[in-house]
Known about the structure:
By secondary structure, the protein is mainly alpha-helical. It has one domain (about 5-90). It contains four helices and no strands. The protein has helices at about 5-30, 35-60, 65-80, 80-90. The relative contact order is 0.16. Bound molecules: fe (ii) ion (FE2). The site of fe (ii) ion has 4 residues, from helix 1 and helix 2.
Amino acid sequence: xxxxxxxxxxxxxxxxxxxxxxxxxxxxxxxxxxxxxxxxxxxxxxxxxxxxxxxxxxxxxxxxxxxxxxxxxxxxxxxxxxxxxxxxxxx
Length: 91
Ligand SMILES: [Fe+2]
């Protein structure tokens, strides 16, 4: 049995994982460079696996923070993908 505190932390982490999945997936769709697109999709799938692992433990589906997805998408469009990803990784 997992304590409520651990469950809360897992759910918080689970939401971050699914949010990051979409943060990497969204710009990949419009990326012209095939190599960079595949890297983003690969990272996106990794984040989804992290999400699925936590989901197995919590037994719950969590929605992504779409405000955050859009924020990083717009930052990446304006200042460049590298800047957006570095900003996200620091956050
Ligand atoms: Fe992750």
